[in-house]
Design a protein that fits this description.
The chain is an alpha+beta fold. 44% of the residues lie in helices and 16% in strands. The chain binds zinc ion.
Amino acid sequence: MTARRILVTSALPYANGHIHLGHLVEYLQTDIWVRFQKLRGNRCVYVCADDTHGTAIMNRARSEGRSEEAVIADMRDAHIRDFAGFGVEYDNYGSTHSPANRELCGQFWQALRAKGLIAEREVSQLFDPTAGTFLADRFVKGTCPKCGTPEQYGDSCEKCLATYSPTELINPYSTLSGAKPELRSAPHAFVELEKLHAWLETWIDTSDALQPEIANYLKNYFLKEPLRDWDVSRPARYFGFEIPDLPGHYWYVWFDAPIGYVASTAEWCARTGDKLADWWQNSGVEIHHFIGKDITYFHTLFWPGMLYAAGYTLPKKVHIHGFLTVNGEKMSKSRGTFIMASTYLKHLDPAYLRYYYASKLSPRVEDLDLNFDEFAAKANSDLVGKVVNLASRSARFVQDTGLSREYPDDGGLFAAGAAAGDEIAAAYEQCDYARATRLIMQLADTANQYVDAQQPWTLRKNPETAARVQPICTVTLNLFRQIAVYLAPVLPRLAGQAGELLHAPITSWRDSQTHLTGTAVAPFQPLLTRVDPVKVQAMLDESKDSLPGGLQSQSESTSVLTAPAVSPPNANPSAGAATLDAISRALEDAGKMLLETTTKVAKTASETLGPKVQSAFGTIGKAVDHAIKQVKHQMAQAVGGGDPTVFDDSPESLDAEPLAATCTIEDFQKVDLRVARIITAEEVPAAKKLLKLTVSLGGEVRRTVIAGIKAAYKPEELVGRLVIVVANLQPRQMSFGLSEGMVAAAGAGGAEVYLLAPDSGAKPGHRVH
Ligand SMILES: [Zn+2]
């Protein structure tokens, strides 16, 4: 098979703003596709650039008192940093404000002129005489001509929703200078797109370049009527390229932006010695544009028209994706869901987002919802629980021996995984990453079933069975590597780590088809850890508009601090009890300080804002206390438990207390288990082992429970926490009082008692099913 030649672009990010998670839907989608093509051995070039021209940049530079060049240079650095942070790897990242782009704009312009597609005519527009510039509608404000509301924008009234022309505003003024605008007319240049109407229709019908829903949309809307002329020039002052044969006039930003794709390729060619024409004027090259649905019109009508007129290769495919919603809603600054790429990177591993987006992306033009519960669940169960787990449960056992010399009999597992490669590749090729990741996770499930059944961690303890450990781990690590190859477009870092672990870098899709035998196995390093909900919350909090303090910030602190399930930190097995003690003390100090501060603030607040606020602070105080205890508890577990990704549990507990006889579901249903909150806890003075608890099942329903947990818990640690109680247990008279239930706990007894707690979201009164 000969390698394909593929040129890929993502839409150019505008230099007026930072990259956010919405943008990343596109850049990650494209990067995954490009990495897939490269892994398959195709010659694939991925170019992008900053989109730098236009009024917004000009006005920003003006308001910041510096040059446009300085503004766009800073933003370019930030964009490049953000892309690198998420592993988006361009072959060239250019700028539309480049010599290459200026030259190419001139060539496209001449080609359009030569085809008779450029027309010039006068356009009247409001002009700011102080700023010396024509004003777009949103740079004019005044009184609504319909309802008389002052301070309305030039295109529509927020009060009565009327739309109008900016020249109709009463007492209009320029938002740039405050000056009264004048109506002035200036010549504008237009592309007469209607002259390409028939050609565009044929291209859309016959090229297969557009998704069916997009092709139908264009045919049923825009192409039903004559296409309007496209205004492609702006009079001075404007930040852009001056049109050579129209002095004092500039190409509109949307004219030079897509030409930026070609210019960025030209820069790449200059570095590699390739010829630009070999890539852009060569029917043997596939051109693939990835864009969002908001810029469909530009990329499916204007841009093909320009390419056609200039004699360039038309796109083989325009891949159009939908928008990002977060937790089912539009991204919002007040909810903290307008998340910048750099904010995400401060708190979370980019691999989670790359995988999450991949698992949701299909070839259809659909919006993608980022739900943080699902986000954590997918990363934890798929990546950590299924994929990384394969390596963490086997690599350590063959660290001294390496992989077997001969590939062992695996019952056809590896061959089945190799056979799935074509189907997975086809899914990637069609941008159906949701399907690709689903297929890969099926392989991971099968591989885990194999390890679960073989249990190398048990076999190695017995000299008679220890010899089976190496072949079993050889199979497991081969299956792990096969999965890492298939996931490499999505998780390039994991593929790199897999290469290091087994001393065999993953460089080609074909690596999924061949066994690895006889290689050394490097000491196992944790490859990926579970999503820490505390960090997710911290990212959301940091994404919120800067808060004025007061009530809003309180409720937010509460939500951070009551975030449950602090996942074990990336534990270092050698971290000893001394370290834990030191951290515990530091946490306790921090807790005391927080409580003191909270109490002080609460006092001041209640004097000015009333008792409700004071009670809110009380809640925060308890939450702080509770959160710190949870962190301590989890840390203790992590330090005691060693590497959190290795599951090597001892059979001791089960041996000590064998499984009970089978019961039916009806038997189980007789026991009414409920979530309850401990509201008081006190010692029973005469009893060494007992604590007396009052638990709430919600509303006014309370139970007194006398529990044998005194050796494991201090009463003050318990107040406020959620537990599971047997709520319909027959009350029992004890010498210390009546016990009306039981608190569910695990462990051998004495100090080894571990209360059960529900995950976050559970409320007192919820039944356990
Ligand atoms: Zn109005």
